[in-house]
Amino acid sequence: MSTEHQHYLAGIAEELDVPYFSSTAIDELVGRPADFRAAAQVWREAAEVVEQSTGDVDGELGGIDTAWQGADAEAFVAHVRDAGLAGKDLADAMTGLADALEHTAEGVGAQERRLNELVARTADDVRAAMTAADAERARKHLADLAEPARELLESIADYYMAFTRLCDDMAGVATREPGRWEAQAPAEVSAGTPAVPGISDVAGTTQPAGTTAASAESEEEDQPGAGAAAGGIAAGAAVGAAGVGMGMMPMGMMGGMMGQRGGGNQERQNSSRLKSNPDDLFGAQPDVPPAVFGEPAKSQQPQSDQKPQEPQATPGKLDLPSTLQPAPPKPSIDEVLAPKAEAKPKPETGTAGVGDAPPPKPRG
Predict the structure, then answer these.
(1) Domain annotation covers residue 304
(2) For residue 174, is it within any domain?
(3) Overall pTM surpassing 0.85 (yes/no)
(4) How far apart are CA 23 and CA 153, in angstroms?
């Protein structure tokens, strides 16, 4: 705020007996927006450190998941991955808080510049009126300044009130289910209102550390109100960061994950379960012809609602060449160029009987 213009207008207003807002009150309302920008830079740097650390931990999980097998390995990898998800949420919360600080500083700074321009223009008009000894016109300029200045001051106050509400939301009590980092507003449950299913049961039950990923996935169910609770991620994570500093995650957030996995905020699934079923490894085997050509196909088992088909008689053997039946020898080149003449059939020889002899010739 321009101190010179403020003091000049305040003195003229007192001389002409015109109400005028106090410059001290304006300075207290505007505050120091530069401090908000400095705080935003601190939160943004802290978010980068958390995000980098989370990425380093996730990068080492691949080797652990490959070298270490068993139920204990499943539980450990699942726990570290859930903690990594919480680290990402914490980094997002810090970044969101930095954005809110910068937005507040920019909004307050813009309204402050408009107010300075308005005060400077009014001071020039009042000075010109007083030089011309026109007190009435000077009073009019001071009166015209009151309404737009009040609107700009209210706009500055609105920016600060919005940031104050954000801080109040972060300072609220955050309720968290084991394995999840969504911040939820504490709800007052009356005697006639049923509690939200799943919260009390999950909070009071823990699973052993050896729980495998397959059993954990089968027991996971979608929790009601997950969409509404997603809006409080930034608030809950920022509260935990403010309580323990920027270098560590709250122990309450880390301890709730030991031996148990959350069911509603899983971005990645554990892939260390060994597959022993051939169908899972290579897929379902397609229908293929029999190994030996001509071999009858295996009959399928009849279904319960269909009548079994009668077995059909199949020939024992097909007279076709195959790899199991050698092919006949091929003729040589000489046999092809000079084929042998087929031998004429010889007359049948045998013993003639008496009745087979020709009749005697007559003698002349």
Answers:
(1) no
(2) yes
(3) no
(4) 12
- Highest mean pLDDT (candidates 159-163, 173-177, 221-225): 159-163
Total domains, the chain = 1
Phi, psi of 322 (to 5 degrees): -145, -175
Nearest alpha carbon to residue 19 among 122, 139, 149: 139
Q: In degrees, to the nearest 5, what angle opens at C-alpha 268 toward C-alphas 263 and 273?
A: 90
User: Element (H or E) spanning 161, and its range?
Assistant: helix 135-171
Cβ 79 vs Cβ 179: under 8 Å:
no
CA torsion, points 262, 268, 272, 277, in degrees to nearest 10?
Answer: 100
* φ, ψ for residue 79, nearest 5 deg: -65, -45
Average pLDDT, the chain: 67
In this structure, the chain runs to a length of: 364
Report whether 125 contacts 47 (CB < 8 A): no
Please compute Rg for the chain using Cα positions: 48
**Range of 81's domain?**
3-185+232-255
**Pick from 2-11, 58-67, 304-313: least confident:** 304-313
The residue among 1, 2, 25, 22 whose CA lies nearest residue 10 is: 22
| Residue whose entry in the numeric block shows the structure tokens 């009959």 | 299
What is the H or E stretch that residue 309 is in?
A: none
Task: Answer whether residue 290 is part of any domain.
Answer: no
Residue 97 located in a structural domain: yes
Q: Which two tokens stand for residue 215?
A: 């059993």
CA dihedral 39, 42, 43, 48 (to 10 degrees): 160
Q: Is 194 helix (H, G, I), strand (E, B) or coil?
A: coil
CB 177 within 8 A of CB 202: yes
